[in-house]
Every structure is written in C-alpha cells, then in structure tokens.
C-alpha cells in the first residue's frame, strides 16, 4: 500500500519535473526572443492549474497517508502555488500576464521560481524513490 | 516642379506646416544623391567631378596628417583659404568674392569661439592681419587634437572614446555644412575642435562687408540651434536666406579656390610623415586630456604616434593618385550638373570607376602628385572648365532637389537652409563653382605655403589645448552650479522665475551639439553611474523618457539602399560610433567592429566619396530612414480608420455626435493618408449597426446586427439605453484585422450588454477616503485580451470616453493601453451644458484627426552593453524584451523606460541609448526614425547628483508610482514617492562633508525634487483626502503613463504667471509677434493679490484668475468688460481687443498654446466664483485639509531623514 502511495507520488513528481522544465524552456525562449510574450504566456497559463492540482494531490496524499515530514515539506510550495493563483488581479490573463511579464523583472522572478521548483521536485523525486524502495523492501 | 523629386507627396506628410521642411531636406538628399551620378555617367571616362575632388582631397589629406580621421583635413583646407586672403587679391575675380568668404569664415569663427576666447582672437587676427600662417595653423591644429584624441583613445582600447573626438567633425555638421558652402572646409576645423555650443546664439552678427553672407550663416546657425532646442523662427529666415542664396555663387567661387588650393596643400603635408606625426602626437596627448579620465591617456600619445605615421604614409600614397585623377577629370562635372535626375545606380558605378582609376595610377605617381605634380593638372583642368557656367547651373539643381513643395517659384534655397541648418544644398553649388576659377590665382601660393604649414601648427595647437582644457576644468570643477548645496528649509523661493530646462550632459561641446534633443530623449541621470551599487547609493531612479514620434520641424530623411547597422546588435549607425579607419566602424553599443559598406562611402550631400563620417546618419542623432522591403513583413498597409460610435440614448443626449460629425467633415481632407485610405463607421447601442458606404450609393446603407445572435435584423434604434461596447469592439476587430489601422471608439457609459460588460465599482462615499482606493485596476481581462488581439493585427483602439457617470475607465482603458492607442476623457460631457468641454472635444478632435500617424510600428530601444531595461511605461505591448509593439504611433505619445546597470561600466566613459521606431507612414512608406542619446559615465556619487535631471526623474517616478498603485495600493505608491525624496536627500546628505544635520540640504540639481514630489502627491492621480472621482483618478494615471515629459510636467506642476502687468521687458519675438515673458510665480496663494490677474497653465487647461480688486483698466482692455462685477461666471475666450495689454495677453497665451498638441481650454475664474476651487486645488505649496504645505512637507522629510 505504502509502495503504491509512493509510486503514485513518484509518477506525479515526474510529471511536475517535466512541467517545470517546460516552464523553464518556454521562459528562456521568451528571454531569448524566440517566441513573443503573448504565446509564451498563453502556453504557460494552460499549465498553471495542472501543476497546482498535481502538486496538491501529492501533498494531500502525504497527509492522508500520514507522512508528516513529507507533507510539511510540500506544504509551503503548495500554499505558494495556490496563493499565487488566487492573487492574480482580475484584469490579468493568468499567473503569466503577457503585458506585464517584461516589467519589473517579472520574467526573471518567474524563471527563478521555476528553477527553485525544479530543484524541489527533483529532491522530492529522490525522496519518493527512496521511500518507495524502502517500502517495497519492507513489504 | 522637379519630376525628379522622387517623393512629391512627401510634403503632405505631416499635418503641421513645419513638416514641410522635412521633405525639403529629404528631397535634397535625394537629389544630391542623384546628381553625382550624372557626373559619372557623363564624364569623359573619368568620373570624378570637380567638386568631388576637392572634397576628396581634403578628406584624404586628413588621414595622413592625423591617421584616424579626416578631422584634420579641413584644417589643411583652411590654410589655403587664409593664405589667399593674406595674399591679398591675387586674381581679379577674387576681389569680389574673397572678402565675402573670408568674412564669412571670420564671422563663423567668431561664433564658434565665443566660448573660448583664445581661438576667437586668433581667428580675428587671421582675418585682419596677413600673418595668418600661425593663425591658420592653429586652426589646423585644432583639427588634430580631436583626431589624436581619438587615436589615443582607441589604443587605450576604450571603445567609446574615439567617438568623443570623432564626432567633433560631425558636430560641426549643420554649421560646418553651412560654412563649407561658403568658405569651403576652411571653417570646419575650427568648429571641430571648438564647436562652441553657443555658437549660434552668441553670434555677434559681426563683420561688416558681405552682409548677405553673414546673415546667411547666422541664419543657418540659429536655425540649427533653434531646431534642436526650441522652435525655430522659420518664416523670417526664409527671405533672408533667399537673398543670400543669390549672393552665394560668388562667394562660392572663392571657396572653390580655397578648396582647390587645399587640394594641393594637404597633399604636401602628408608627404612629410615623421614631422607631422610627431606634431600630431604631441597634440594628441593634449587632446586626450580633454577626456574625463585624463590619466589614462597621458601615456598614450607615444603609442599612437607610431601608428599614425605608418598610416600617414600609406594613405598618403593612395590618395595621392586619387587626387591626380580627379584633377584631370575636373571638367566633367560641368556637363553633368545639369542632369540631376539619374538613378542611384549610376552613382554607384561612378564611384566604382573612380576608385579603379585611382588604383591604376602607380604609387610613385601619387607622390609626385603630392609634391605638387598635381598642380598643373588642376590648374589646367580648372582653367578649362568654364567656371561661370557652373556657377549658374548648379544652383538650380540643388534648389530643385530641395523643394518638394509644388510652388516652383518658391525660394528653394531658403528652404534648404531652413530645414536643417544643414547647408547641404548651398554647399553644393559652392563646390561646383569652386573648382574652376580660383585655382589660377591661388594655386602657386598655396603651394609654397604648404611646406611649412605644419610647424606652426603645433604651437597654437598647444594653446588651444590649454584653452580647451580650461573649458574642461570648468566642467569638472569641484562645484558646478548643479551641485551647489541648497538649504531647502531656508530657501523661500525655490522655484526659479524662468522655466526649468533640461540639464546639458557633461560632455564635450561637440558631443553635446550632436546629442539628441532633450525634447525627444531624456535620461533621469545625465551622468550615468558606473555601477549598480553607485546607483543604489544615489537612491535616484534611472530611466529614459522618450517622445520618439514628436512633430519635428527638421528631420533629415535618408534614402539609401543599405541602412548601415551593427552586425551583431543591429544598432543603426549614429554620430557616436567611431570610425577606426575609412572602412570600418566600431559600434558604440556592443563595440563590435563593422565594415562600412561601399554605398556608405559616398556622401550624397557633399557628393564626395570616402567620407563616411560626413554622412547625415553620422551627423545627426535624429534621423529617419526610408526602409527597404527588408523591413516589411507584408506590403505597407493603407491608412484605415474606423469610427465606432455609441448611439445609445445617453450618447444622443450628450450631443457629441454633432461635434464629431462637424469635425470629421472639416478635417476629412486632412486625414493623413493616400489614395488607399479607407474610412468606416459603426454605431452601437444594444445592437450594432454597420454602414455601407460604397461608391454609387446616394446614401449610406445601414445594416443592423443584434449582438447576441449575430443575424441582421431590421429593428430601428429607439430609446435604447444599453450599450454593447464589447461586441461592437469585437466586430471592429474583425473588420480591421485584414489590414490593421485605427479604431476610434466613442463611449458614453458603462458597457452593459454582451461580452465585456462591466459593473459599477465605485463607491461614491469612498471618493475622499484617505485609506484605501480600490478598483484602480481593470475588472476584467476582456479588454486587455481584445487589445492584444488588436495589437497582433496592427490595430490600435483609441478611446474617447464622454461620460457623466462612472464608466470604469480602469477597465476600458485597457483597450487602448495595450494596443498602443490613446485615451481622451471628458467627464460630464454635454454639448450644450458644458461648452468648455465641447470646445475641448472639438479642438482635440481636430488635432486627433489631422495629426501624423504611423501604422504597424515597432519600437526598439537599445543601450550600451552593461545597461539593461527592465520596465516600460506607456501605451504599447512589450512583445519581447526590448521590442515594443505599437499598432499605431502618434506624435503625442510619450514613453518611459527604467534601466538598471547589470555590468559595471568601468571600461567605458560614455553610454549611448538608441531608439529605433519602425513604422508605416500614412503614405504607405516604411520608415525608421532613429534617436541616439549619448551620456557620460561617472564614478563618484557627487557627479551623479550633479547630473540629475529632476523633471525626468519626477516623470519616471510618477510612472512608477502609477504602476505601484495599480499593482499594490495607492498608499504604497504615496509612501514610495515620499521615500524617494527622503532617501535621495539623505543619501546626498551623507556625501557632503560639513554636514549640518539640522538642515535639509539638497544639491541645486535636486532642489525642486521635494516640491515636485509634493506636487505629485497632490495630483489627481495620487491625492487622498480630497474627493476624487475614480475615473478622474484613473484618467490622470493614464495621462501620466502616456504624456511626454513636457506636457506631463505642466500637469504635475502648473506654471503660474501674473498677467495684469505684462511688459515687453525680456519679451521674445515669435513670428513678428512680441511675446512677453512674465516670470514664474510659485504655486502659493500668497502670490495672488486681489489687485492682480493671474494665468495658470496646467497643460490641458488654462485658468485666468481675476482678483476682486483687479485694475479696471485691465478688465476693460483685456476682458472687454467695464468692471469686475460685469465679468460673467463662465468665460472661455478672450476678446480680440485693439489694446496693447490685450494684444500682449493674447500673444502670450497663443504662444503658450502653440506647440501643444491638444489646445488647452481657457477658463476665466473670478475671485469668489464657484469655479475657484478648481483653480485653487493647483496651489500645491499651500496647505489643504488633507495635505501638507510645502514647508510642512520639508519638515516631514527632514524628520524622516533624521530618524
């Protein structure tokens, strides 16, 4: 059972890793002028909710399966994701707004955020992997 | 007239009459361009025209003497001229002309040197006394320093430095060109080295003899000056210049001679490499010290000296034969001058052939030539060429070229002079004439002199150096005026009595003269700090304020096949690049070395080859290119205008439709566009109505579409109160998307139907709340999405909001903000109830409909490596990091950019910014307007403070505060504004050593900073505590974001004048009108006296306040009423009375109105009338219930600092 939980998290985490890599690639495309802000933002905004949902699922899963440490580790990131989503001003076109992404270093901060998340997901990935193997061995 | 003129329509381009000049300049170039071709093709095998050779010679000689640049050239040219003069009138024909040219030279010299006394005197000397060698040489040497400087610098590997010296040449351009026309290069050098900035201004209208000429010069000079810094008094110039043109030919003769002489002379110089080089080097060291980091250069000269040497020799040889060739080919031009209408290709061919010929002749030969072998040639050629003919012919040609205007009789020359101060046109005839006649007399003498000319050169050179150094030291003296500490709390009258001008960057004079006009391009810090750390220490915002599409009275327009740009960063070539040699230039933004394309080697204006640095691109920091098809993604779009009109009950009631229709009818012919122009109308209430305006229909057909299901219905519009703006806009977008263009939306209420409907968000009780102001941001992203869609299809949406009630401008504005449109707001508009609003709409519409417009535009801002832009302000969509997508660009749009310093700028002393605006003109031409600004880099905090442009800083801060209040909150923004003052003043306080902590000290450059910030805090956009309607506030914010600096400053801090006692003291003359210049009053009620009348200029509105005890004479003479009581409550016009005071007042007001895009409405406010509050809210130095007075604010700031 425990192994199943971690396997699920592992898959989810993989998806999140791919997603954040995608974010990074798209943002750096924008940085290098390969795509314009409009298409970049519409691409990224599509994936904001899946990412949020994906990560919330893992977090909830950990809570449900009573893995406190991992849950607490995930909690800040999940909170941030939700906060960010909720705090989008009504006039904006999503978390990534094409009219603002070039302003006030937003692009850079988005980039930084994506990088940090990637690191975090990688960490989680190995943690889940380890936990899963441990769980399998214990079984 | 000239069928040759390739762009006859050009003149129609701009709405403003001034625009006309642009074309002339343009046409001019073009023509010039072609003319040479004529020479080439027609020439008997040898292509170079006489004028050309002379030019070339000069040019070439330059390089020898001073390796890098041609700067020197002119100097050599100069000598002959001087000699001639000294010699007295050698040839009979010279008699007449000589004095002219000389005087010209002298006078010009005097202009140039007014700032530096020494050169001036020397020149005068030159003029008077026959012993001019030393004098001339001094002049010549002047040429050197700069070159040398350049050289030294470049060796230092300081990329930007070279520019410094280099541009000196171009700097002369307007003047220089002018001069050249008369005196040939003679004057150039002087200018080069000295390039007094005040030249034009200070021109003492001196030397007597050939008045016409002097005038001419004077005019052109002043023209130039004015053009760049203020409005030129063009009309008057016209006639004058015309006259002068007449006299020109003669003068030119003279010039020619000089040039011819110089031909030989320079050559001579070059031949003696070692000596000259040494000279150069010495000069070099001196010159280099001119540059800020003097220490570096001290060592350099030696190094550079050797290099120059080699080059000198080398080049000397090469060019030698060139000279030869030209000499022999002289006769050609004569015949060719007549046909200017050849194609450009010809010209290129000509160039080619010329070069081949030159190469053909063996090197030794060239040496011969150098040593004087060429003379005979020259001589004969000149002799053979029938000079008089020439003199006559060339003139008409350029003239034609110049005048785009249809009037054939029009004094084209005059135009020429006007447009640019560019003397190109004049120049040409000069050259042409030149070649022939003089040589005969002048030559020999020139010959003999040339030998020793070099020696004297360096002595004066040294002198001049010191003088220039003196100038420098002045600039960098420990406490320039801008750093004078001002104790703010003790200075009662902080506001100067004259308008505040933009500070001049601390660059050398040539560079400053070349620099972009502060009206188009300004930086908050005219001294750029070297590192981000230094910038952070200064606590001042760093950014640019742009007004790129400003209506210009003079603008060089360049047509050429290749637009020269840096290959790596795509920067357009500009006056601040450095030419490493003739064939290569170094980009001043990324420091890449680029090749100079072949086409660029030919200068269409002087018709000379091998002078890439004299091309207009390199002589002007604001130029416009006609772009080739490389710059088009699709064929240039036609001008398409769509009007989307609200016809709901509310709108009909307000009555704007009649005004709009009237304005449209009046201005329909003036709508910018060509034969492809299209115009369309849509109206909407709860349904959308389309109109079929096809040709052949006697009456427009109306098609009604209900917005919901999109099927045409036959419902007549009735008393419909709903407004389906969203669907109407979507329909408009679909209509426009195939072409792009401009959509003008007139809306009178909150959109209440279909997509994009809005709810009222304003709580009237919160209007004067101190705490929170909500709803500054849009309620929906519908309008933003729509705007981005429009922007993608090159459609801009302009919004006219004429509403009496809250209509959520914050949301609606998005449709214009992101599609690069503009926003007009008329609160509580009613055509009959509020006539002033109606009048304003009418005037705005007139301007709106007729002003210039650019379609499918993009603007890119580039800056020197190390700097980066991070935030943009204005109406546009940022498509990629530095590319602003502007579906439309209008001349009233301003932009702001925030900068940060990413890499330290220690290895450069200058930074440059370049904006390139690529647009399609209403005539379907693809054009690129390029502005380049150059600023020095400093390493000390005091220097940073010395260079603060307080107005620019305030405007940038205002933009940032708008962003902050939308993204965060209004109170945050207000705090940030106060902190900006506190931080910068306390940071400055910590830099001055003898600190009195009790006093609030600011550098003189920042002394208005607190006042302006206080003004901002009391501005509609940011004020709290005073009842402000949400839409008014949002509109003020929109204006802050989009107004160019000049207009924004008036909005922030209005100007107050006392007008009941206008005198002619200090008055200026504009178009034969005397405009009195009353002094500025501070914005405090203490300045108001009951006995006076005051005019407040708030940018978009004028108030005239009449005191109760105002002199009845004034009331009667100006307002046309017998006494105070008789003045009506609502008065928006001053009667045209035939009294002196009325005339003065009106001319002053007209003067204020001129040059303002949206003509302000005038309100006469009686003391104690209800409208008084409107007027008194602008007294920002006074205390109000909710806000500090200026003094209190200072105390508050002081407290904060001490904390």
TrEMBL record, chain A:
One of its GO terms (biological process) is endoplasmic reticulum to Golgi vesicle-mediated transport. Signal peptide: none annotated. Keywords: Membrane, Transmembrane, Transmembrane helix. The keyword Nucleotidyltransferase does not apply. It is found in: Membrane. It comes from the Eukaryota. One of its GO terms (cellular component) is endoplasmic reticulum. GO terms for molecular function: CCR5 chemokine receptor binding. It is a multi-pass membrane protein. Pfam families: Cornichon. SMART domains: Cornichon. Its main location: membrane. The chain crosses the membrane at residues 5-25, 52-75, 118-137. Belongs to the cornichon family. This is Cornichon family AMPA receptor auxiliary protein 4. It comes from Nannospalax galili (Northern Israeli blind subterranean mole rat).
From TrEMBL, chain B:
Pfam families: Gelsolin, Sec23_BS, Sec23_helical, Sec23_trunk, zf-Sec23_Sec24. The keyword RNA-binding does not apply. Residues 328-337 have a biased composition (Low complexity). Keywords: Cytoplasmic vesicle, Protein transport, Transport. It is found in: Cytoplasm, Cytosol; Cytoplasmic vesicle, COPII-coated vesicle membrane; Endoplasmic reticulum membrane. It is a peripheral membrane protein. Residues 949-1049 form the Sec23/Sec24 helical domain. Belongs to the SEC23/SEC24 family. SEC24 subfamily. This is SEC24 homolog B, COPII coat complex component.
